[in-house]
DNA sequence: TGCATGTGTGTAAGCGCTTACAGTCCAAAG
DNA sequence: CTTTGGACTGTAAGCGCTTACACACATGCA
């Protein structure tokens, strides 16, 4: 990337303004002139410098995304949906992981200087900085965050589906429940799930802290819980990874799932389907979240829309075997119609 | 991001050159002057425009990455390692997925205009364009590709570990094998694995085309294979996702793994550990690949090194239960010492 | 006192584009 | 034969920085 518009102009025997117009199709250019320009462009293999274009246009044609960590399928899926749509809209995607980073503020500010708008997960960016970004006019879309003024928010529904899940488990006849997944920040996804199950199960469920949403933490929390007295009959986990940890803990302790214990997850990641027993879980439309975020951002950036919007996407209860036997569809509730692959 | 260096200069009562010097620490600035500048910067909340800086400096402080798809854990893990190190080195990461994209060339060229160097997976970028990028002086690092001049390459070892895996299976006494994972481009990872197992098993193994490296394709290929006559005793899969598909197919057909059939994967993704039976596989250091790519790129960009380098990282055979019983460590070979989590 | 060194600062020339504005030219209308 | 309005094209002013170069002013030392 070395040859500039000047060399093209010189070779074609025209001014740089004409080259620019010929290439972008803004303003009239005689057919013969255009040809000369295109020929020169071809011969020199010219590609306009992105920096020059951006500086002159005053836009980056790029979107940012800030996530805590890409470990685990959730963020990856959202990212995929995001990148795909952003690319369709002619925008590059610049990523930033905050996991284990000091100086998050600086990193986010740097990112802000490279993009026209950004997608931010939950509370990965400190509140004062968010306020500042909003004030500076940066276009923002949040996923899994309570609505705020000056930015879009997007999430998938939690409370009602959590209630539905809880009711399903209650229908199995379980009476002592545990919820694995604290700590929960107010208004965060997991907190909403907790509120949802609690509304249905009331005092029959207790919350257990897992510190992080990982297999390891799920394993440890579940092991301690299951070793103690008053072992629950069903463990509702904040997400699939914690649930996978719980399955491992049960296996370790010689407990049969779902015989001695029911376990459920949330998200419907790939491993949920492959675990044995396969995980009953709540599928949320991860890619769709990313895709919508990209579109929302585009609307805000192009000013096709000015008022922020707050969307909530529906989820789907996916019943598999980890929550108990389902005579009507046994032995593999996720295998109906002979197709082991549920629609995505 | 609105206030420019001019406003800062004016407010501090100095020239923009002084502001720049004060901020970057290049060139002498009197202590009192520096204070005035910093105060003005503070008050105006000034952040230098990335575009201005990049244009003047002639560099982007950003790295690109081109991958086919982020679905599945492999690319994600590499990306994570890459982003982490790139960020440490002060570089942003711009991503580009080629999955399902027409006009890959344009997208890659656009990317090239935004970054100082890029990491490219395998053969996601057409050869002529690669040559052109090299010619233009773009710094490139490839993962899983045969060495070429003018760029670094990086891969993890395949052939020897494939041989080790095959030998292990032969040790179980199996005699009829299948390899699930074609089509294989010459010199690609999967081809090397095939060469490796074949060198050990010779005519006892046949290759089966799966079209794609997905659970779905693995399932279909395995089902067809297992339904046919002369069913193999062991299926060596090109990667874990194909292997997970094979496990599902076996379950579908009522075959016990490892009783009736052994199955192995490659990569050691999360689901491999959680599948039942847990997958015997070959772990490759995915994050490390990404991290090294970022470092290699940095060396090339900063010209700390001029000659391309070709690295190969070691892998590790991870024996679990899907390949057969291992009396000495039964029932869960990956659970020794009471710890269900193998070191990563 | 005179001159070589620094030190501190400003001026201005880029970096590679886009685009408002100001021509130039020519065919059609009067 | 003038006007007039398009169609084209060029000039030049940014966009927001960095930095070479020049200059002004103190020092230190002979």
Description:
Two copies of one chain form a homodimer. Chain A has 344 residues and is an alpha/beta fold. Chain A starts with a helix and ends in a 26-residue tail after the last strand. The first copy, chain A, is elongated. The model of chain A is unreliable at 328-344 (pLDDT under 50). Chain A contains 13 helices and twelve strands. In chain A, the strands form three sheets. Chain A has a six-stranded parallel sheet with strand order 2-1-3-4-5-11, with helices on both faces. Chains A and B meet through helix 4, helix 5, strand 2, helix 6 and helix 10 of A and helix 4, helix 5, strand 2, helix 6 and helix 10 of B. Chain A binds a DNA duplex (30 and 30 nucleotides) through helix 2 and helix 4.
